[in-house]
Design goal:
This protein is 66% helix and 0% strand. The longest helix is centred in the first third of the chain and has 29 residues. It contains nine helices and no strands. It has 174 residues and is mainly α. The radius of gyration is 34 Å and the shape is rod-shaped. It has two domains: 49 residues; 98 residues, Chromosomal Replication Initiator Protein Dnaa, Chain: A, CATH 1.10.1750.
């Protein structure tokens, strides 16, 4: 909004020689445009002042809790435990370790890998790339996919499926 002084200045400009021949409608349009331009300038100035003063509103997007006592680096015992998990999964599903780390997509191999991925991540709490070291150097997105399937109980991780029994059997034997 324009204050009293600014309104008077605007009226003086409108009475200036080039603007005195304007019709009433044209003067109204010019007056409205001047007010809108002034208000827009005030908003712009406030935005610049806010940016210069670095007063940004902060919003919490996601909270992640980190266990400070646990290192994400894999240790010798972690490697041993990871290999033990893979061996138990291979024995339970009766697959060779070569097939387990291969690119084959047989259902029994995929389920075995999924159990191993979930157990290794849960038990060792290591990075996704470190988990992939046990599964045949898979991409981290593959690891995320298997973790997400179990969490959302999708595909072969649905309630009542045999994979849950296998998962719990191996987890208890560790």
């Amino acid at each position: 909004m324009l204050n009293q002084k600014q309104n008077e200045e605007l009226q003086q400009v409108l009475n200036f020689t080039p603007y005195e021949n304007l019709t009433a409608r044209e003067k109204t349009i010019y007056l409205t445009a001047a007010r809108n331009g002034y208000n827009l300038g005030i908003k712009h100035r406030k935005q610049i002042d806010r940016l210069e003063s670095n007063q940004f509103s902060k919003e919490i997007v996601r909270v992640k809790y980190i266990n400070k006592n646990h290192s994400n680096k894999i240790t010798e015992t972690g490697i041993t435990i990871g290999n033990d998990i893979v061996d138990k999964v291979c024995d339970l599903y009766q697959v060779s370790k070569e097939d387990f780390i291969s690119n084959k997509r047989l259902m029994s191999l995929v389920q075995a890998r999924s159990i191993a991925i979930n157990l290794i991540k849960e038990v060792l709490n290591i990075s996704l790339n470190s988990v992939s070291m046990f599964i045949g150097e898979r991409d981290h997105s593959t690891i995320v996919h298997h973790l997400k399937m179990k969490y959302e109980k999708k595909r072969f991780w649905q309630e009542g499926k045999r994979i849950w029994e296998d998962y719990n059997t191996i987890k208890e034997s560790l």
